Amino acid sequence: MSGRGGDVVGTVTEEVRGDPGLFGPGSVTWQVHADPMMWVAGVRALYLQALLPRAVRGVMQNSDFRKDAWGRLMRTAGFVGTTTYGTAEDAERAGARVRKIHRHLKVTDPDTGERYGVDEPELLLWVHCAEIDSYLHVARRSGFRLTDAQADQYIAEHRTSARLVGLDPADVPGDRAGLAAYFERTRPLLAAGPEARDVDDFLRRPPVHPLLIPARATLWRRVSHLAYASLPPYAHELYGRQAPAPAAVTRELRFTGTVLRCVPARVRWQLPPKHILRAMSRLGPGSRPAPYRIGSRTAILDRPGRAQRGDGGDSARCRSRGRPG
Hints:
By secondary structure, the protein is an all-alpha fold. It has helices at residues 28-32, 38-49, 53-62, 65-85, 88-103, 121-141, 148-157, 159-164, 176-186, 194-204, 213-229, 233-239, 246-261, 265-268, 275-283, 314-319, and strands at 106-108, 115-117. A two-stranded antiparallel sheet has the order 1-2. A hairpin with a 6-residue loop joins strand 1 and strand 2 (115-117). It starts with 27 loop residues before the first helix and ends in a 6-residue tail after the last helix.
């Protein structure tokens, strides 16, 4: 499978007018990363990444995480948006910028005094795998329908994003089995050290302007709760905080996903920096990420022409609230 995506998701029936970027409208990535549950997935990834002490130290020692965590989260979202929906040149430039920054950042182990770089392959691989696992896990568990073959394709496509941050794609898991085996090998290295506790504290109660405290209590608390609850059981054990029963978590994720997907995509995509709208302007209406359809068993691009009508299926999706399968 190429980095520009195969034909598992569907066929783009409209002529592509511009540079489709590294993935393109025919990829699974193009569809998944347009889903609003990616914000919950991004927070889950932060929780998971913080459990590898050597990796989280790189963040805590090289950035003022507690004062600029929102900025860091938005920069990560910007990188994902650029590499997914930007031109190939934009994506390569974003990757080069990340690699350049990482080359100059060092970390000190407080116990041994060892100095090491944040761009060590094993650290980059952990960050990558935690992100891809979180994006895929939250999307599927919240009701975004992907077959196992499509899930494998999504993982394989992100060998491209791994290359951008400095990894050899041959060393990166390319399917669900490879990803599961990687986490099994890495689990003995995980721990909820002081840095992970700091991340946990921040994600539960991020500092905000006093006027935004009510919003934090209602909106952010739900995002943080869902992100933490969706972690694997071993992560809950390491953090020492219980989570609801898995069935209850799945129900919460699906309910939240259904509600968020009822917001018309054109409204959601107006939020800065508008990567998806710019990609559609560059490539034409046929590049619109596929609507999520409750009644479908697979995530496929809609039949020709549907993506151009109305809200592309969002309202129809909300009118037919079948039980996610």
